[in-house]
């Protein structure tokens, strides 16, 4: 009896993990000439960085990274009629109403690309993916309605402004991953086959609920766990977990957590703080030498006076991203 009770106590007692290893900041780059500001995604396509803004419905930006301050060059998109992804009329209506006030009806929240250089942009407002080919007009992908149906049945995509926040596409352009932001958060995937886009047995890789604790600099209060972006690198899915100021490595098959690294120490330096009580990082690229992390500052001014979106370059962890911290 005593042994059983001791085991029960062990199970019930919280386990406090050791502090995560901190990533080293190499450089930071304010971004000029984004018309709507609010950088909300990053992709590296054959050596060129691309970004989107959640306030610019018809623009995709390439980035001139030749100087410390980056310059955004806008490519105008001809947006075709928006498909019905199966997202509820209530959520779509709330997105339209919000756009009247802040702009950004489509609410672009992530961008990725394939080896051919085609770009893929996810619209949070409509839970849809726009393919921007190297040549030719943009088209909306005909994703299966099962993606939305399964996600909502599992408790995801229930709240306005908490839909899809990130996208990753493989090099062949025939599989994509989507990150459901929060309340609940999750990872979903679909494949392109001979009959179009479809899911395997399930569209869902993982569903997670619960809270993270904001750093003391942001008030230390509990907030919903979130995914702010995802990046595909060497057969692993990397998640940007905004509230916890960390980047985590996960398996492609199930989204199972393998390892995490923190960037809180650098991001929360006094001169980099905003008068906004939540995390603001929304864009992620992981590569061999490090990670790019982009900030959507919501037009807020940083403590040092910086008003533009900022992209940070972090060095890869010692031993590389494949190594366990």
Automatic annotation (TrEMBL):
Pfam families found in the cross-reference section: Phytase-like
Position of the signal peptide: 1-17
Top-rank taxon, per record: Bacteria
Keywords attached to this entry: Signal
Record-linked InterPro entries: Phytase-like_dom (IPR027372)
Domain Phytase-like, chain residue ranges per copy: 37-183
UniProt-recorded name of the protein: Phytase-like domain-containing protein
Taxonomic placement: Bacteria, Pseudomonadati, Pseudomonadota, Gammaproteobacteria, Pseudomonadales
